[in-house]
Each structure stands twice: as C-alpha cells, then as structure tokens.
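Students often ask why we bother encoding 3D structure as a string. The short answer is that it lets us treat folding as translation between two languages. Here is a chain of 145 residues written in the first language.
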Amino acid sequence: MFEITPWRPFRELERMRREMDRLWGDVFTPAAPSELGWAPSVDVSETKDSILVRAEIPGMDVKDIDISIVGDTLTIKGDKKQKIEEKDENYYRIECNYGSFTRSLRLPATVDADKVQAKYEKGVLTIQLPKKEEAKPKQIEVKTA
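And here it is in the second language, the structure alphabet:
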C-alpha cells in the first residue's frame, strides 16, 4: 500500500536553503587556528608500562622545544626558525614549515609526570610517559570452585 503525503514546497525550499548555506559557509568560513600554522605529525603508542609519543620536528634546536603536562593533556610547543643566509639565492618554492606551533594531546592513561623522559634525535622528539600504578592493567586470576 502506498501512503499519500501532502507536498509542502516551502519545506523543500527551506531544506535547499539550509544546504546552500552550509555549502557557502564551508567555502567562506575562515580557517581554524590550527589550519593557519603548522603542527608536527605525532605517533602515540602504548605499552604495558608507558605511553610513547613521537613527534617529527626536524631542523629544530632543543632549546626551542617546550613540553608540559597538565592533568591528562600533553602539550608540545616550539618555534622553528627559518635560516636564510644566502644573499644571492632566489627561492622558487618553500615547502618546509617554519614558525611557532602548539600540539596538545589527551593522554589515554594517567602518567607519572615526575618520571617523564624526552629525547630529540635525528629530527624526532620521543617522549616516554610512564604510567602510574593505578593505570597499569592488572591481571586477575580466575579460580575454579
């Protein structure tokens, strides 16, 4: 059996207007702050005892990197400076990222902030965040009756 529903042309026009507003809004909406600058790519992995964060930030000095933990959020900040020394060099293209960045990550477990270690080697920042005892998985033995 077919159901007969009344045609409401103004409802269809309203739906079309909303869709057009959304499309035009996507085109003309200013970019979010994270899209205006750059942020390093990160890998986050977890072991039984710790969380590992690896961030790709080649060409930086260690003194220009700041790492902080507030609650369950890890924040990596930095400033990658552009070094142009050649006076007679004309650039056709610059694709390397320069400038300040901030990258905040919510950590999947509670970490012991006093035992965090960080090292920077070959353009990769590695942060090891040991888990607190209460965040580590506990094995529960199942007994038979």
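Translate back mentally: The beta strands are 42-46, 50-56, 65-70, 73-80, 99-106, 117-121, 124-130. Keep this in mind for the problem set.
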